[in-house]
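Quick one from the shared queue. A colleague (R.T.) flagged serine-type D-Ala-D-Ala carboxypeptidase as missing a structural entry in our internal table.

Convert sequence to structure tokens.
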Amino acid sequence: MKKRIISGCLVLALLIGGFMGIDRFRPEERSISIVNAKVEPSQKETGLKVDAKAAVLMDATSGEVLFAQNAHKRLPPASVTKVMTMLLILEACESGKINLSDTVTISERAAAMGGSQMYMEPGEQHTVEELLMGVAMASANDGAVALAEHLAGSVEMFVERMNKRAAELDMKDTNFVNTNGLPVSNHYTSAYDIAIMSKALIRFPETQKWFTKWQATIKVGLPGKEKDFGLTNTNRLIKIYPGAIGIKTGFTQDAGYCLSGAAERNGTRLIGVILGASTSKVRFAEISKMFDYGFSNFESVKVAKKGQVQKALKLEKGTPSKIDVVMEDDVAVLVKKGKKNSIKTKVEMKGYVPLPLKRGQQLGELVVYQDGVEKERFPIVAAESAKKASIKDLYIQMMKKII
């Protein structure tokens, strides 16, 4: 017992002597490099040629581009603009700023919008979810404006948020001027940028019940004067292409026929974008052709699940003294069919990181290799928070080891 007490005192003295040092963990000291940008496959590599001004085929999980035609050309997107409008609303619901059940009062400005609409009257009220359904299915311009005003206070402030979010998503060929895509100067985006924001949007499971529903009925009008209004989905892709799950159509004389579409088969989810097709029939035929190419040649390999432990990390001078490092999100990569077994993974940790650590803080990356060549990197994060241990905490930890 005396020996244990003496040992404890020695440990305490050592702790006090070193306590003022920098608190950090000591994983493998390795910096995280940036993967080189990938070449976007064109007609030459794929044999595909799309009858439209621009087109992109993208893996919806990893963001890998499988085909590109004028992918970064700046073009008017028409109502495909509403992908960003819906994304901001759903992200605001996710963060708790607003709720799907919120009541929205329709303004004069919203009710006066032209083009496709729900024909709502100033002063009538709807939930956020009803308006989202109208935007998703019937491309309701009035619904898009009402949602923008509800979240940001005005259309102008909402458009500022649209452009800010576009920058955060690295959408370099995009500038929004309105919420709905009605013709206006300097309102543009690209097929690639639309695929990026569509990828962000369809991670919300709520979208599937709107994007895949063919018809629905809601009540519109002021109290006492309500009437049934039928919503019919503008996206015929969900009727004609097996596995189609969305997303948004668009048309103006300037933009031509546009479409951001998504389809899923056997766990593989793809996004296709068509801009500037000559007819509605052409846009659906061309995106179907892209999807056929993607599903015939590629398959998705699940690498890890959200929350799956990748490493148990010991902390120096931290409490707790050990935390799990986990996947931030589900991880899957796309490979050519028959190449599933070519995928390997490796955990790489950041260098020294000072305490405290926050839950969800990135601590490293899961690196995915195919045939020994790096393919993708995905964040791994702290499963829980950790703080700088007090002298008492450290003494208790060391005494437990001794005892």
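The first helix runs from residue 2 to 18.
Confidence is low (pLDDT under 50) at residues 2-6, 10-37.
Added to the table.
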